Amino acid sequence: MRYLILSDVHSNLEAMRAVMAHASRKRRDGVLFLGDAVGYGAAPNQVVERLRMMGNVVRSVRGNHDRVVLDPTQGAVFFNNHARRAAAWTAELLTGANQRWLESLPVGPREVEAGLEICHGSPADEDEYLFTEPEAQLAYGATEAKVIFFGHSNVPCMFELTEQGGRQSVVGVLLRGSRVVIDLDPTRRYLINPGSVGQPRDRDARASYGLYDSEARRFTLYRVAYDVDAARRRIMAAGLPPILGDRLLHGA
Ligand SMILES: [Fe+2]
User: Fold this and answer.
1) Which one has a higher pLDDT value, 191 or 72?
2) How many angstroms is it from 152 CA to the middle of ligand 1?
């Protein structure tokens, strides 16, 4: 099976459009969505509608922002000021149908096929960030899957786990570049973040997404330029905190 992998779209319609146009030329059997359709950006309904329109080919998990917009009082606990304001603004604007779609998103981790799972933050907790090798090593303990795709940190990266003589070691790498191809070793385990479509945070402003061929065990990461200024203008026009637009310019 060949999967298109999307994560952390964060209500960025311009980035979503660019990614879908770029990916339209690639053969795929399904779509994996790792959560956070909404939050931060200014086009929540348009983004959710695009995901909804893909129908059954999409296997999704809920993100923390998808959860909080359904109950913005949670923002006080989980979010900084800007994220909290964006969540309250989004909650006001969402149509009933889009709200119901967000409500229907299952909590991860979720098995997609034997040995392949998707989750938002980590396999243990949708709110947990995986940045370091020790964090990834702990996360492997929460699942038996060989390959786990995760999001939430908005940083494209990979943690490879090798087991030798009962000893585990985890090596993490950032995935940098316009197109990064990784052939997975069937004897090892992988936690892979395809980066964020709509709010990249690795100092590369381009939208990020992945493709995974589960038979060939090949993962490819793509970066796609999009109209960042238009996404930023939309955020400013909505009266959302300007920093949410500015950060898109820097991919931070
Ligand atoms: Fe998230």
Assistant:
1) 191
2) 4
Task: Tell me the sheet residues that pair with 117.
Answer: 111, 148
User: How close is the Cα of 42 to the center of ligand 1, in Å?
Assistant: 16
How far is the C-alpha of 82 from the C-alpha of 122, rounded, in Å?
23
Q: How far is the CA of 221 from the centre of ligand 1 (A)?
A: 19
Q: 31 CB contacts (<8 Å, ≥6 apart)? A: 3, 4, 5, 6, 54, 57, 58, 59
Q: Which DSSP state fits 185?
A: P
Residue 59 belongs to what H/E stretch? strand 58-60
CA 169, CA 43: separation in Å to the nearest integer? 42
Measure 66 CA to ligand 1 centroid, in angstroms: 8
Ligand 1: centre distance to CA 137 (Å) = 20
Express each pLDDT in 3-52 by its tens digit.
999 999 999 999 999 999 999 999 999 999 999 999 999 999 999 999 99
Question: What's the pTM?
Answer: 0.97
Domains defined for the chain, CATH in brackets: 2-110+177-185+194-250 (3.60.21.10)
Long-range contacts of 180-184 (CB under 8 A, 24+ apart): 180/156, 180/220, 180/221, 181/218, 181/219, 181/220, 182/158, 182/218, 182/219, 182/220, 182/221, 183/216, 183/217, 183/218, 184/147, 184/217, 184/218, 184/219
